Amino acid sequence: MKIFADTAIIKEIEEASSWGIISGVTTNPSLIAKSGITLTEAIDKIVNLVDGPISAEVKESNAEAMVEEAKTYAKIHKNIVIKIPMTIEGVKAVKELTKLNIKTNVTLVFSMSQALMASSAGATYVSPFMGRIDDLTEKDDAGFKLVKDIKEMFKTYNFKTKIIAASIRHINHVEQAMKAGAEIATIPYKVLKKMVKHELTTKGLKIFAEAQEK
Ligand code: E4P
């Protein structure tokens, strides 16, 4: 499973990409607002830090306007993927962008039916939101089941759309995404940092350091 950074904060992307494990970046309007810079400014900087798919979300809500907005982002760099919300207008825009050879990531996906709509329109990626569906259902495996079901459905019908497990809140989500067969997980910086840690690693390091002292 590839690791994308789910952030628009440049310092976080710089740090995480220096570890050599980041294959792409996803942004959304909330993450852009948090970063304190505009989407275009963020894209300009991120493309120089990460050589992989970088999702930029459209602000427009009707298909024609989404396509026009998408074209302006796609022109900036070959790695730009257009993030489109799961609506009828969004599906129409994905169909059009697919014809234009512009890659898309359909976001806010919470069901197999929505994933089918996205992949039928030619979406390059779909983003099922694990954390938000867990919150809604008050279950800790609703996100896992969602990703697993979509993966099986894509396999059954031979869809080429890749799954980006999104809305990841903790390590368990990352591991559930792997078990469910997601091709990618987009992970917030604070979770990325936790992924190298384990209490027994910390304890083991202390024991070895003490032994070396002796
Ligand atoms: C990524 O593509 C999504 O926009 C992001 O993972 C959403 O996460 P959230 O539910 O924590 O806002």
Task: Provide a descriptive summary of the structure in words.
This protein is α/β, with parallel strands linked by helices and 214 residues long. The chain has eleven helices and eight strands. The chain has helices spanning 10-18, 29-35, 39-46, 63-76, 88-99, 112-120, 130-137, 142-157, 171-180, 189-194, 199-213; strands at 2-6, 24-26, 54-57, 80-85, 104-109, 125-128, 162-165, 184-187. It has an eight-stranded parallel β-barrel with strand order 1-2-3-4-5-6-7-8, surrounded by six helices. Strand 5 (104-109), helix 6 and strand 6 (125-128) form a beta-alpha-beta unit. Bound molecules: erythose-4-phosphate (E4P). Residues 6, 26, 28, 30, 107, 127, 129, 131-132, 166-167, 186 line the site of erythose-4-phosphate.
